[in-house]
Amino acid sequence: MYDTKISFENTEVAYASLSDKELKKAYWLFRMMSIPWLVNIGNSMITLCLKLNLPIQGIIKNTVFSHFCGGESLDESISLISRLKQNNIEVLLNYSVEGLEDAKGYQDTYEKTLNAIHFAKENPSVRAICVKFTGYAHTDIWIKLQQNKGLSATERHEYLQAKSYIDKLCSEAAACDVHLYIDAEESWFQSSIDTLVDEMMEKYNQEDAYIFNTYQLYRNDKLDDFKKAHQRAIEKGYVLGAKIVRGAYVEKETKYYQALGAKSPINDTKEASDKEFNDAVRYAVEHIANISLCCASHNEASNKLYYELLTQNNTALNHKHVNSSQLLGMSDNITYNLSAMGMNTSKYMPFGPVKEVIPYLIRRAQENTSVEGQTSRELLLLEKELKRRGI
Fold this sequence. Notes:
Blueprint: H1 11-14, H2 20-33, H3 36-51, H4 57-68, H5 74-85, E1 89-95, H6 103-122, E2 126-131, H7 139-146, H8 153-175, E3 179-182, H9 187-204, E4 211-216, H10 222-236, E5 240-245, H11 250-260, H12 270-286, E6 291-296, H13 300-312, E7 322-327, H14 332-340, E8 345-351, H15 354-370, H16 374-388
Parallel strand pairs: 1-2, 1-8, 2-3, 3-4, 4-5, 5-6, 6-7, 7-8
C-alpha cells in the first residue's frame, strides 16, 4: 500500500518553508544553545532584566520566541498556522502562561483556553488544544487527592470550580470537533489527574476521541497504565485518546524521590524508556480502531517505527487516529518528511505574551543543551541544508 521506508535526512523537504534568512537565524540560534555556560548566563540575565523591567522583550520576541512560539495571541499565530497548513502540518495549540495560582489566574486560563477551542473550530488545521490541570487548581490540591487526604472547605471549593472549568472545556471541545490534550505532570500527583481524565474520556469519547491523556513512558509503570486505560475504554465503550511522550521531569523527579529516600518511578536507563515507548507504539497500532494515538516524540527511531508499523498494518497514514507531533522549532526533519509521505503530523505551538512565556522558553533552551545529541543533530541538519543551498 505504501513505501515502508522513511528517511529523515532530506533537508530540502525539512526546511522547504524557511527562507535563507530564517535558515541562518535558526542555525545561529542552535549554535548559541549548544554552549551550556552561555545558556545558563543568558537565562539568568533574561530573568534579571525582566524583574528590573528592562526593555528586552523585543529582542526575545525576535529570537527564541519567534522560533519556538506562534505569537503573543491567537490572531498573531494565524500566519504561522497557515504556513504550516501549506505543508499539511496541523497544530497543537497551548496557552503557555504558567504560575497563575489564584482564582483570577485560573479563570483567565479557562477563558483563554475556551477561546482557543472556538478558534480551532474556525481553523480546522488546529488539531488540538493542550492544557494542564494545574492551570485550574493549585498543585497541593492534586497532591492531596492522590494521597487520599481530605480537602479543606476552601480547597474543596477550588477543586469543584476547577472540575467545572475542565468539564466545560471538554464538553465544548467535543461539540466543536476539537481535540483536548491533557498534559502530563509530576508523578506525585499524576494519578489524581489520570482519574479525572478517565472520567472525562468516558463522558465525551463515546463516539470518538476528543479528550486525550498523556502517558510518560520514561516511568516504569506507564506502559501498564496505558494498557489498563485501553481495557477500561473497551469495557466502558469509549475510544481512548492517548498522547505518548518519553517525559519531561527527569531531574525534578530524581530530586524529589532522593529527598524522600525513595526510589524514583523513572526507568533506570534511557534504553528501558525507549523500549517501553516503542512497545506503546506497537500496542496502539495493533488497536488503532479504538486508540487515537499522538506519537509526540523527537526520537527518529520511534517515529520510523510508527510509520513502518502503520504501513505494514495497511493503516492509512491519514487515518483520524494517527498523528506524529514535534515541538515547533525542533525536529523539522521528522515532521516535514513524515508529512511529505502522507502521514498526519503536527507541531506543538505555544502562544502567549512574551514575558509570560519566558519559563517555557528557558526550558526549551535548557532541554536543547542537556538532551544528549539534540542540539548537535539540529545543527548538523541545518548545516547540511545551508551547504545544499550554497549559503
